Structures are given as structure tokens and as C-alpha cells.
Amino acid sequence: MLVDGYGREVSYLRLSVTDRCNLNCFYCRTGQEMEYIPHENILTYEEMVVLARAARALRVEKLRLTGGEPFARRDFLAFLGLLREQCPELDVRITTNATLLAGKAAAVKHLGIRRINISMDTLDPAKFLEITGRDMLDRVLAAIDECLGLGLRVKINVVAMKGVNDMELPAFVRLACDKPVDVRFIEFMPIGASTRWNDAATWTAREIIAQAGAMVRLTPLERHGRSGGPARLFAIEGGQGRLGVISPLSDHFCTSCNRLRVTSDGRLRTCLFSDKEYRLRPALRHPRLGIDHVVGIMRRALRTKPMGYELLELRRRAQVCDRVMSSIGG
Ligand code: SAM
After folding, report:
1. With bands split at pLDDT 50, 70 and 90, how would you rate the model's confidence at 317?
2. pLDDT, tens digit, for every residue of 133-175?
3. For atom 12 of ligand 1, which residue has the closest CA?
4. CATH superfamily of 2-155+254-328
5. Which of 174, 161, 144, 264 is nearest to 203 (CA)?
6. H or E stretch including 325?
7. Residue 35: band (very low, low, confident or very high) from pLDDT cuts 50, 70, 90
8. Residue from 16, 19, 159 whose mutation best tests the ligand 1 pocket (most atoms within 8 A of CB)
9. Domain ranges of the chain
10. Residue nearest ligand 1's atom 17 by CA
11. What is the pTM of this model?
């Protein structure tokens, strides 16, 4: 078991398979011309599989594939097949904007994926275009229905932004009533050097629950220990789905954080809010250094996994880290 310097057990790895994304969400990118990581620096799928095996050797149970947009990387489905073959006991999940998912959900399910997180910040096509730069909301909605039709578990993640999507709370509550999905609002975080985060955009978890509670009857659900994740979930009376909030700012969950992150160029980050990175790529590419060496770096890195909220307070919530979210993976 991987245990960090604060005694937190780490069992969850988020792996960004690419820093490229087909959307251009205003809160995620720099706003300037994006500089992508050169292709030769991106881990190959084979290297990612070695990394997954190293994580598994450390008893990591859950691997979340993210990006950039994972489905935008060529042969992503083949990678899912490789993972299934070589790490069959890993619980692999995907976080996606779902714009490239419609038509592929059956294949994804066939490759052993049971749970998909879909990021969707608005239910209004014009606003979708405004936020993401692309007119693709219909594709996302089609992908959600396709996944649900196949019995996949779908969570919808909404970045909560006052003045941007707070007026859509009734529509999102209706969605959670009408479909068997978890609709989870994530507090907007001040990530990345040119983040558009500002105090006025802060829409806290507490406000969201109070406002939604005035629309429907909400019952808080028990959290299931560490593996339950950071969301606080609520059942909706008469609804098929659930409502949730994730509150990294107003009510942090750093003391139970069980995750590590690896960027698509093979840099291990022990905390979303810390720019300290540990380079795994040289070890993964070295002809004589094997998986044990990678495991050793991960173990050593973990000893210094910080409490993210302390970093947030130190920076007074301004640009808590430099990398843009599309290169970290969320
Ligand atoms: N392309 C994939 C997607 O859209 O889900 C994966 C990558 S995206 C960076 C991962 C998640 O991070 C998305 O749900 C996105 O909305 C969220 N995110 C990005 N910037 C954020 C911020 N500043 N605060 C909170 N969530 C953010």
C-alpha cells in the first residue's frame, strides 16, 4: 500500500493521455496560442501501460484516463484494450468532454469500462459555444444517452461559475431528475497561469445545495469511505439521478486525498495545487531501468505529497499552480 507522509493511503492514479483537446474551454486554456507538448515527449501507450503496472504494483486500484481529451488521441480504444490485457485487475475509468464519444460507447464498454465522467458546463447550445469555442452540445447529449442506454454509469461534472452557469441550476436539477446520472458541481478552482478565475465567479457548494434544495427535496447520502471520492451526494425525491457538489475551495478534502496524477509527458504530480513534478519518462524510456525504478520514484515522491489547501492559502487563491488544467488532466 502506498502511504504518504501524512498517513494518507494512495490508491488512485489520474493519467493524462494527451494534453491536446478538441475544445477550447475558456477556463482551462491559456487564452493565447496553446503550446502543445512535442509529440516525442508524450508517453507512448506502451509506456503508459508500464506506468499502470508500476501503479498496480503499489496497489493502486483505480486508474482514471483524462487529458486534454482522451478520445482525441489516436488509437485511444486500442490503448484501452492494451490496459485490459496487461492490467486486468485495474478499475479503469474515463473523464471526457464526450464530444467524440457517440458511436464508441459500446466499444468502450466491451473494453471493460463501466464508468464515465462527462464534463458539461451548460445545457444551452449557444453558451456551450461560448464556453468551449465549439458548437457540439448535441454530440455530448447524444453520447450521454448512448452510455445510459448501454447501462454505463455516468457522472456529469459541471464547473460551477457564477455569472456563467448559475442561472442553469434548474435545468441541471431537471436533468438529474429525469435521467439516472449524478450531476456534480465542482467549485471553480484558480488553476493555471492565466486562469479566468476570480472571486465574483465563485459559486460555492453550500450555495448550490441551498438553491437546489429550494427546488427539490434533497437527502444527503453517506460517503463510502476513501473510495467514495470527494463529492457530497444527495438523493432527489422522485428523481432518477442524484445531485452532488465537490468543494475543493470552500470545504477541502485534502486530509483524505488518495490520488496521484501523471501528465501525458510522464511527470508525476502529487497534488493538483503543487507544481512540483517528478520525471518518470526518463525511467520509463531507459533501456536498463525497469518497472522497479519507476515504483521507487513514485514511492519517494509520495513522501512529500503536500496538503493542497495549505498551498491554496499561501497563494491566496491566485493562480495556485502554473500548468493549465488541460495539461494536468483535472
Ligand atoms: N477533456 C476531458 C474533460 O473535458 O473532461 C478531461 C480533461 S478536463 C481538464 C478535466 C476536468 O477539469 C473537466 O471536468 C473540466 O471541466 C475540469 N476543470 C478544468 N479547469 C477547471 C477549474 N479551473 N476548476 C474546476 N474544474 C476545472
Report:
1. low
2. 999 999 999 999 999 999 999 999 999 999 999 999 999 999 9
3. 330
4. Aldolase class I (3.20.20.70)
5. 161
6. helix 325-328
7. confident
8. 159
9. 2-155+254-328
10. 330
11. 0.96
pLDDT of amino acid 224: 61
Give the pLDDT mean for 310-330.
80
Dihedral sign, Cα of residue 186, residue 191, residue 194, residue 200: positive
Helices (H), 113-159: 125-132, 137-149
Question: Which ligand 1 atom sits closest to the C-alpha of 157?
Answer: 14
Residue in the structure block whose three cell numbers are 496487461 = 86
Residue with cell 463501466: 114
- Tens of pLDDT along 197-223? 888 899 999 999 999 999 999 999 987
| Burial zone of 38 (CB within 10 Å; 0-12 exposed, 13-18 middle, 19+ buried) | exposed
User: In the structure, which protein residues have their CB atom closer than 6 angstroms to any atom of ligand 1?
Assistant: 21, 27-28, 66-67, 69, 95-97, 119, 157, 159, 186, 188-189, 191, 325-326, 329-330
